[in-house]
Design a protein that fits this description.
The chain has 13 helices and twelve strands. The relative contact order is 0.17. Helices cover 42% and strands 13% of the residues. The chain is globular. Helix 4 packs across helix 10, helix 5 crosses helix 9 and helix 11 runs parallel beside helix 13. The chain has a seven-stranded mixed β-sheet, with helices on both faces. The chain has a three-stranded antiparallel β-sheet with strand order 9-12-11, with helices on one face. With 393 residues, it is α/β, with parallel strands linked by helices. The chain folds into two domains: 134 residues, Aspartate Aminotransferase, domain 1 (Alpha-Beta Complex), CATH 3.90.1150.10; 244 residues, Type I PLP-dependent aspartate aminotransferase-like (Major domain) (Aspartate Aminotransferase, domain 2). It binds pyridoxal-5'-phosphate. The site of pyridoxal-5'-phosphate has 13 residues, from helix 5. Pyridoxal-5'-phosphate binds next to helix 5.
Length: 393
Protein backbone atom coordinates (compact mmCIF):
# COMPACT_ATOMS: atom_id res chain seq x y z
CA UNK A 1 0.00 0.00 0.00
CA UNK A 2 1.18 3.51 -0.77
CA UNK A 3 -1.10 5.31 1.64
CA UNK A 4 -1.65 4.77 5.36
CA UNK A 5 -3.94 1.96 6.49
CA UNK A 6 -5.97 4.45 8.46
CA UNK A 7 -6.63 6.78 5.55
CA UNK A 8 -7.40 3.76 3.41
CA UNK A 9 -9.99 2.72 5.99
CA UNK A 10 -11.39 6.26 6.26
CA UNK A 11 -11.78 6.44 2.49
CA UNK A 12 -13.92 3.31 2.69
CA UNK A 13 -15.89 4.65 5.65
CA UNK A 14 -16.58 7.93 3.88
CA UNK A 15 -17.32 6.20 0.60
CA UNK A 16 -21.07 6.66 0.72
CA UNK A 17 -20.48 10.42 0.51
CA UNK A 18 -18.23 9.86 -2.51
CA UNK A 19 -20.76 7.48 -4.03
CA UNK A 20 -23.44 10.13 -3.55
CA UNK A 21 -21.29 12.70 -5.38
CA UNK A 22 -20.60 10.25 -8.18
CA UNK A 23 -24.22 9.16 -8.40
CA UNK A 24 -25.36 12.81 -8.39
CA UNK A 25 -22.95 13.70 -11.18
CA UNK A 26 -24.03 10.60 -13.17
CA UNK A 27 -27.75 11.38 -12.77
CA UNK A 28 -27.23 15.06 -13.69
CA UNK A 29 -25.31 14.03 -16.84
CA UNK A 30 -28.13 11.69 -17.92
CA UNK A 31 -31.21 13.70 -16.91
CA UNK A 32 -29.88 17.28 -16.97
CA UNK A 33 -29.02 19.24 -13.79
CA UNK A 34 -32.52 20.77 -13.58
CA UNK A 35 -34.15 17.37 -13.35
CA UNK A 36 -32.08 16.10 -10.42
CA UNK A 37 -33.10 17.39 -6.98
CA UNK A 38 -29.88 17.71 -5.02
CA UNK A 39 -30.42 18.10 -1.26
CA UNK A 40 -27.14 16.45 -0.33
CA UNK A 41 -24.77 19.34 0.43
CA UNK A 42 -24.72 22.08 3.07
CA UNK A 43 -23.25 24.59 0.63
CA UNK A 44 -25.06 27.93 1.12
CA UNK A 45 -26.80 29.10 -2.06
CA UNK A 46 -27.77 32.57 -0.79
CA UNK A 47 -25.39 35.34 -1.95
CA UNK A 48 -23.00 36.94 0.61
CA UNK A 49 -24.45 40.22 1.96
CA UNK A 50 -23.63 43.44 0.04
CA UNK A 51 -21.68 44.75 3.08
CA UNK A 52 -19.28 41.81 2.77
CA UNK A 53 -18.65 42.46 -0.93
CA UNK A 54 -18.16 46.19 -0.29
CA UNK A 55 -15.66 45.56 2.53
CA UNK A 56 -13.81 43.03 0.38
CA UNK A 57 -13.48 45.55 -2.48
CA UNK A 58 -12.18 48.30 -0.20
CA UNK A 59 -9.74 46.05 1.61
CA UNK A 60 -8.45 44.44 -1.59
CA UNK A 61 -7.81 47.94 -2.97
CA UNK A 62 -5.60 48.92 -0.02
CA UNK A 63 -2.00 49.15 -1.24
CA UNK A 64 -0.29 49.58 2.17
CA UNK A 65 2.86 47.55 2.77
CA UNK A 66 2.86 44.30 4.76
CA UNK A 67 -0.80 43.43 4.31
CA UNK A 68 0.03 39.94 3.09
CA UNK A 69 2.77 39.13 5.58
CA UNK A 70 2.84 36.54 8.37
CA UNK A 71 1.28 37.74 11.60
CA UNK A 72 0.93 36.43 15.17
CA UNK A 73 -0.54 32.90 15.03
CA UNK A 74 -3.87 33.85 16.68
CA UNK A 75 -4.46 36.61 14.12
CA UNK A 76 -4.35 40.41 13.85
CA UNK A 77 -4.89 42.05 17.26
CA UNK A 78 -7.42 44.58 15.90
CA UNK A 79 -9.45 41.78 14.29
CA UNK A 80 -9.47 39.76 17.51
CA UNK A 81 -10.59 42.88 19.37
CA UNK A 82 -13.51 43.45 16.96
CA UNK A 83 -14.55 39.80 17.28
CA UNK A 84 -14.15 39.84 21.08
CA UNK A 85 -16.43 42.90 21.37
CA UNK A 86 -19.11 41.17 19.31
CA UNK A 87 -18.85 37.85 21.18
CA UNK A 88 -19.00 39.70 24.53
CA UNK A 89 -22.46 40.95 23.58
CA UNK A 90 -23.63 37.58 22.33
CA UNK A 91 -22.34 35.66 25.35
CA UNK A 92 -22.98 38.29 28.03
CA UNK A 93 -19.36 37.92 29.16
CA UNK A 94 -16.28 40.17 29.06
CA UNK A 95 -14.41 38.43 26.24
CA UNK A 96 -11.01 40.04 25.57
CA UNK A 97 -8.92 40.23 22.42
CA UNK A 98 -6.61 37.53 23.80
CA UNK A 99 -9.52 35.09 24.22
CA UNK A 100 -9.98 35.01 20.44
CA UNK A 101 -7.96 32.91 17.98
CA UNK A 102 -8.77 33.43 14.30
CA UNK A 103 -8.98 30.09 12.44
CA UNK A 104 -9.47 28.47 9.06
CA UNK A 105 -13.20 27.97 9.54
CA UNK A 106 -14.92 26.04 12.31
CA UNK A 107 -13.32 22.84 10.98
CA UNK A 108 -9.88 24.38 11.53
CA UNK A 109 -11.04 25.66 14.93
CA UNK A 110 -12.22 22.22 16.04
CA UNK A 111 -8.91 20.64 15.05
CA UNK A 112 -6.98 23.35 16.90
CA UNK A 113 -9.09 22.84 20.05
CA UNK A 114 -8.86 19.04 19.95
CA UNK A 115 -5.09 19.18 19.32
CA UNK A 116 -4.78 21.46 22.36
CA UNK A 117 -6.86 19.51 24.88
CA UNK A 118 -6.68 15.80 23.98
CA UNK A 119 -4.21 13.22 25.23
CA UNK A 120 -4.10 9.81 23.56
CA UNK A 121 -7.05 7.71 24.72
CA UNK A 122 -9.21 10.66 25.77
CA UNK A 123 -12.84 10.43 24.72
CA UNK A 124 -14.99 13.21 23.26
CA UNK A 125 -18.68 12.84 23.98
CA UNK A 126 -21.05 14.00 21.22
CA UNK A 127 -24.85 14.02 21.30
CA UNK A 128 -26.08 12.09 18.25
CA UNK A 129 -26.97 12.76 15.50
CA UNK A 130 -23.86 14.83 14.83
CA UNK A 131 -21.77 16.37 12.03
CA UNK A 132 -20.06 13.42 10.42
CA UNK A 133 -16.56 14.96 10.28
CA UNK A 134 -16.28 15.03 14.10
CA UNK A 135 -15.13 11.40 14.10
CA UNK A 136 -12.22 12.21 11.82
CA UNK A 137 -11.25 15.34 13.73
CA UNK A 138 -11.23 13.55 17.10
CA UNK A 139 -9.17 10.72 15.61
CA UNK A 140 -6.67 13.26 14.19
CA UNK A 141 -5.65 14.07 17.75
CA UNK A 142 -5.55 10.59 19.25
CA UNK A 143 -9.00 10.71 20.83
CA UNK A 144 -12.03 8.52 20.42
CA UNK A 145 -15.51 9.78 19.65
CA UNK A 146 -18.22 8.48 21.90
CA UNK A 147 -21.79 9.32 21.04
CA UNK A 148 -24.74 9.70 23.34
CA UNK A 149 -28.42 9.61 22.40
CA UNK A 150 -30.56 12.75 22.35
CA UNK A 151 -34.30 12.83 23.11
CA UNK A 152 -36.72 11.83 20.30
CA UNK A 153 -37.02 15.55 19.37
CA UNK A 154 -33.18 15.75 19.29
CA UNK A 155 -32.94 17.96 22.40
CA UNK A 156 -30.18 17.16 24.92
CA UNK A 157 -30.81 14.11 27.08
CA UNK A 158 -29.03 15.16 30.27
CA UNK A 159 -29.60 11.80 32.00
CA UNK A 160 -28.01 9.96 29.09
CA UNK A 161 -25.06 12.38 29.14
CA UNK A 162 -24.74 11.81 32.90
CA UNK A 163 -24.50 8.05 32.30
CA UNK A 164 -22.01 8.46 29.46
CA UNK A 165 -19.64 10.79 31.35
CA UNK A 166 -16.91 8.32 32.27
CA UNK A 167 -13.47 9.41 33.58
CA UNK A 168 -11.92 9.18 30.09
CA UNK A 169 -14.17 11.96 28.70
CA UNK A 170 -12.13 15.13 28.20
CA UNK A 171 -14.73 17.15 26.35
CA UNK A 172 -18.38 17.27 25.43
CA UNK A 173 -18.85 18.61 21.93
CA UNK A 174 -22.20 20.19 21.13
CA UNK A 175 -23.52 21.83 17.97
CA UNK A 176 -26.51 24.15 18.16
CA UNK A 177 -28.24 24.98 15.83
CA UNK A 178 -27.53 21.42 14.86
CA UNK A 179 -26.42 19.79 11.66
CA UNK A 180 -28.28 17.52 10.75
CA UNK A 181 -31.38 18.09 12.95
CA UNK A 182 -31.80 21.89 13.10
CA UNK A 183 -32.41 21.62 16.85
CA UNK A 184 -31.41 24.56 19.11
CA UNK A 185 -30.53 23.65 22.72
CA UNK A 186 -32.41 25.65 25.35
CA UNK A 187 -30.75 27.81 28.03
CA UNK A 188 -32.26 25.50 30.63
CA UNK A 189 -30.70 22.36 29.14
CA UNK A 190 -27.33 24.11 28.78
CA UNK A 191 -27.47 25.21 32.42
CA UNK A 192 -28.17 21.59 33.44
CA UNK A 193 -25.32 20.38 31.24
CA UNK A 194 -23.01 22.99 32.80
CA UNK A 195 -23.93 21.90 36.33
CA UNK A 196 -23.39 18.27 35.40
CA UNK A 197 -19.96 18.95 33.88
CA UNK A 198 -18.91 20.95 36.95
CA UNK A 199 -19.92 18.10 39.22
CA UNK A 200 -18.25 15.40 37.09
CA UNK A 201 -15.06 17.48 36.74
CA UNK A 202 -14.90 17.66 40.54
CA UNK A 203 -15.68 13.95 40.89
CA UNK A 204 -12.94 12.92 38.42
CA UNK A 205 -10.50 15.67 39.50
CA UNK A 206 -9.97 16.88 35.97
CA UNK A 207 -11.43 19.56 33.74
CA UNK A 208 -14.05 18.37 31.29
CA UNK A 209 -14.37 20.99 28.56
CA UNK A 210 -17.60 22.02 26.90
CA UNK A 211 -16.84 22.71 23.24
CA UNK A 212 -19.58 24.42 21.26
CA UNK A 213 -19.48 24.34 17.47
CA UNK A 214 -21.73 27.19 16.32
CA UNK A 215 -21.47 27.97 12.60
CA UNK A 216 -25.28 28.21 12.31
CA UNK A 217 -25.81 30.57 15.30
CA UNK A 218 -27.22 33.37 13.11
CA UNK A 219 -29.41 31.10 10.94
CA UNK A 220 -32.49 30.81 13.12
CA UNK A 221 -36.26 30.94 12.64
CA UNK A 222 -39.46 32.10 14.34
CA UNK A 223 -37.65 34.42 16.75
CA UNK A 224 -35.72 31.54 18.39
CA UNK A 225 -32.63 32.64 20.32
CA UNK A 226 -29.45 30.61 20.62
CA UNK A 227 -28.40 30.83 24.28
CA UNK A 228 -24.77 31.50 25.15
CA UNK A 229 -22.67 28.75 26.73
CA UNK A 230 -20.22 30.99 28.60
CA UNK A 231 -22.75 31.74 31.32
CA UNK A 232 -23.67 28.03 31.54
CA UNK A 233 -20.20 26.65 32.23
CA UNK A 234 -16.79 28.31 32.79
CA UNK A 235 -14.58 25.72 31.10
CA UNK A 236 -16.16 26.27 27.74
CA UNK A 237 -14.79 27.06 24.29
CA UNK A 238 -16.69 28.20 21.20
CA UNK A 239 -15.65 27.62 17.65
CA UNK A 240 -17.51 29.04 14.72
CA UNK A 241 -17.07 30.46 11.26
CA UNK A 242 -18.50 32.87 8.74
CA UNK A 243 -19.01 30.01 6.24
CA UNK A 244 -22.77 29.79 6.63
CA UNK A 245 -23.86 33.18 7.99
CA UNK A 246 -21.89 35.17 5.38
CA UNK A 247 -22.12 32.41 2.73
CA UNK A 248 -18.33 32.25 2.31
CA UNK A 249 -17.32 28.64 3.12
CA UNK A 250 -14.61 28.66 0.45
CA UNK A 251 -12.81 31.54 2.17
CA UNK A 252 -11.99 29.44 5.27
CA UNK A 253 -12.41 32.02 8.01
CA UNK A 254 -13.70 31.53 11.54
CA UNK A 255 -12.54 31.82 15.13
CA UNK A 256 -12.25 30.22 18.55
CA UNK A 257 -13.44 32.07 21.66
CA UNK A 258 -12.24 30.91 25.09
CA UNK A 259 -14.47 31.61 28.08
CA UNK A 260 -12.67 34.33 30.09
CA UNK A 261 -13.76 32.43 33.24
CA UNK A 262 -11.97 29.20 32.17
CA UNK A 263 -9.76 27.86 34.96
CA UNK A 264 -6.69 27.39 32.75
CA UNK A 265 -7.38 30.32 30.45
CA UNK A 266 -3.76 31.31 29.78
CA UNK A 267 -2.37 27.84 29.06
CA UNK A 268 -5.44 27.13 26.95
CA UNK A 269 -4.88 30.26 24.83
CA UNK A 270 -1.14 29.54 24.55
CA UNK A 271 -1.91 25.96 23.48
CA UNK A 272 -4.49 27.04 20.91
CA UNK A 273 -2.08 29.56 19.34
CA UNK A 274 0.65 26.94 19.09
CA UNK A 275 -1.75 24.33 17.71
CA UNK A 276 -2.91 26.79 15.01
CA UNK A 277 0.75 27.06 13.98
CA UNK A 278 1.86 23.45 14.21
CA UNK A 279 -1.20 22.06 12.47
CA UNK A 280 0.06 24.02 9.49
CA UNK A 281 -2.66 26.65 9.43
CA UNK A 282 -0.05 29.15 10.80
CA UNK A 283 -2.71 31.86 10.84
CA UNK A 284 -6.17 32.39 9.36
CA UNK A 285 -6.25 34.07 5.91
CA UNK A 286 -5.07 37.68 6.29
CA UNK A 287 -7.44 39.46 3.93
CA UNK A 288 -10.51 37.60 5.20
CA UNK A 289 -9.63 38.52 8.78
CA UNK A 290 -9.76 42.20 7.81
CA UNK A 291 -13.01 41.77 5.94
CA UNK A 292 -14.87 39.95 8.71
CA UNK A 293 -13.65 42.51 11.27
CA UNK A 294 -15.36 45.18 9.17
CA UNK A 295 -18.70 43.37 9.00
CA UNK A 296 -19.18 42.03 12.56
CA UNK A 297 -22.84 41.23 13.18
CA UNK A 298 -23.72 41.14 9.47
CA UNK A 299 -25.40 38.03 8.09
CA UNK A 300 -27.14 36.82 4.96
CA UNK A 301 -30.87 37.45 4.69
CA UNK A 302 -32.15 34.51 6.72
CA UNK A 303 -35.61 35.19 5.27
CA UNK A 304 -34.52 33.20 2.20
CA UNK A 305 -33.83 30.10 4.28
CA UNK A 306 -37.03 30.65 6.28
CA UNK A 307 -39.01 30.59 3.03
CA UNK A 308 -37.27 27.43 1.80
CA UNK A 309 -37.86 25.75 5.15
CA UNK A 310 -41.55 26.57 4.94
CA UNK A 311 -41.82 25.28 1.36
CA UNK A 312 -40.09 22.01 2.25
CA UNK A 313 -41.86 21.40 5.57
CA UNK A 314 -45.33 22.19 4.22
CA UNK A 315 -44.80 20.06 1.13
CA UNK A 316 -43.39 17.03 2.95
CA UNK A 317 -45.98 17.20 5.74
CA UNK A 318 -48.80 17.01 3.17
CA UNK A 319 -47.19 13.90 1.72
CA UNK A 320 -47.08 12.21 5.13
CA UNK A 321 -43.40 12.62 6.05
CA UNK A 322 -42.71 12.94 9.79
CA UNK A 323 -40.11 15.34 11.16
CA UNK A 324 -39.21 17.84 13.87
CA UNK A 325 -39.37 21.29 12.29
CA UNK A 326 -35.86 22.80 12.46
CA UNK A 327 -35.42 25.87 14.70
CA UNK A 328 -32.16 26.80 12.98
CA UNK A 329 -29.56 25.86 10.33
CA UNK A 330 -30.73 24.74 6.87
CA UNK A 331 -31.29 21.03 7.30
CA UNK A 332 -34.36 18.87 7.74
CA UNK A 333 -33.96 15.43 9.30
CA UNK A 334 -37.17 13.51 8.57
CA UNK A 335 -37.92 9.98 9.71
CA UNK A 336 -37.36 7.41 7.02
CA UNK A 337 -40.73 5.76 6.24
CA UNK A 338 -38.91 2.40 6.54
CA UNK A 339 -36.36 1.44 9.21
CA UNK A 340 -33.53 1.11 6.69
CA UNK A 341 -32.64 4.71 5.88
CA UNK A 342 -30.04 3.68 3.28
CA UNK A 343 -32.70 1.76 1.36
CA UNK A 344 -35.03 4.74 1.51
CA UNK A 345 -32.30 7.11 0.29
CA UNK A 346 -31.85 4.70 -2.66
CA UNK A 347 -35.60 4.90 -3.32
CA UNK A 348 -35.30 8.72 -3.31
CA UNK A 349 -32.39 8.42 -5.72
CA UNK A 350 -34.56 6.35 -8.07
CA UNK A 351 -36.82 9.42 -8.11
CA UNK A 352 -33.76 11.64 -8.81
CA UNK A 353 -33.67 13.08 -5.28
CA UNK A 354 -30.25 13.19 -3.59
CA UNK A 355 -30.34 13.00 0.22
CA UNK A 356 -27.96 11.64 2.90
CA UNK A 357 -28.82 8.61 5.08
CA UNK A 358 -29.15 9.42 8.79
CA UNK A 359 -26.87 6.48 9.64
CA UNK A 360 -23.94 8.57 8.43
CA UNK A 361 -24.70 11.09 11.23
CA UNK A 362 -25.29 8.54 13.98
CA UNK A 363 -29.05 8.97 13.41
CA UNK A 364 -30.29 5.78 11.70
CA UNK A 365 -33.93 5.65 10.60
CA UNK A 366 -33.73 9.23 9.29
CA UNK A 367 -32.39 11.06 6.29
CA UNK A 368 -30.98 14.56 5.86
CA UNK A 369 -32.16 17.15 3.38
CA UNK A 370 -30.06 20.32 3.00
CA UNK A 371 -32.53 23.01 1.91
CA UNK A 372 -29.91 25.61 0.90
CA UNK A 373 -31.14 25.10 -2.68
CA UNK A 374 -33.25 27.12 -5.14
CA UNK A 375 -36.95 27.29 -4.26
CA UNK A 376 -37.71 25.60 -7.60
CA UNK A 377 -35.70 22.52 -6.57
CA UNK A 378 -37.94 22.13 -3.51
CA UNK A 379 -41.20 22.75 -5.37
CA UNK A 380 -40.33 20.58 -8.35
CA UNK A 381 -39.13 17.71 -6.12
CA UNK A 382 -42.51 17.30 -4.35
CA UNK A 383 -44.10 14.86 -6.84
CA UNK A 384 -40.91 12.75 -6.62
CA UNK A 385 -41.00 12.80 -2.78
CA UNK A 386 -44.63 11.66 -3.07
CA UNK A 387 -43.80 8.72 -5.35
CA UNK A 388 -40.94 7.64 -3.04
CA UNK A 389 -43.06 7.50 0.16
CA UNK A 390 -45.96 5.77 -1.59
CA UNK A 391 -43.69 2.87 -2.55
CA UNK A 392 -43.64 1.89 1.13
CA UNK A 393 -47.26 2.50 2.12
N1 LIG B 1 -19.49 22.17 12.05
C1 LIG B 1 -20.67 21.89 11.48
C2 LIG B 1 -21.79 21.44 12.34
C3 LIG B 1 -20.84 21.99 10.10
O1 LIG B 1 -22.03 21.69 9.55
C4 LIG B 1 -19.74 22.42 9.31
C5 LIG B 1 -19.87 22.49 7.85
O2 LIG B 1 -20.82 22.10 7.23
C6 LIG B 1 -18.54 22.72 9.95
C7 LIG B 1 -18.45 22.59 11.32
C8 LIG B 1 -17.35 23.16 9.20
O3 LIG B 1 -17.56 24.40 8.64
P1 LIG B 1 -16.42 25.44 8.29
O4 LIG B 1 -15.11 24.79 8.53
O5 LIG B 1 -16.63 25.80 6.87
O6 LIG B 1 -16.65 26.58 9.20
Amino acid sequence: MTISKKIELFITKASWIRRMFEEGARLKAIHGPDNVFDFSLGNPNVDPPPAFKQALKEIAGNAAAGLHAYMPNPGYPFVRKAVADFVSGEQQAAVAENDIIMTCGAAGGLNVILKTILDPGDAVLVPAPYFVEYGFYVDNHGGSLKNVATNPDFTLNIDAIDQALTPDVKAVLINSPNNPTGQVYSAESLAKLGALLASKSRQFSRTIYLVSDEPYRKIIYDGVRVPGIFTAYPDSIITTSYSKDLSIPGERIGFIAVNPAAAHRNSLIGGLSLANRILGFVNAPAMMQRVVAAVQGTAVDVGHYARKRELLCTGLQKLGYKFVKPAGAFYLFPKSPIPDDVEFVRALQDELILAVPGSGFGGPGHFRLAFCVDDAVITNAMPAFGRAIRKFE
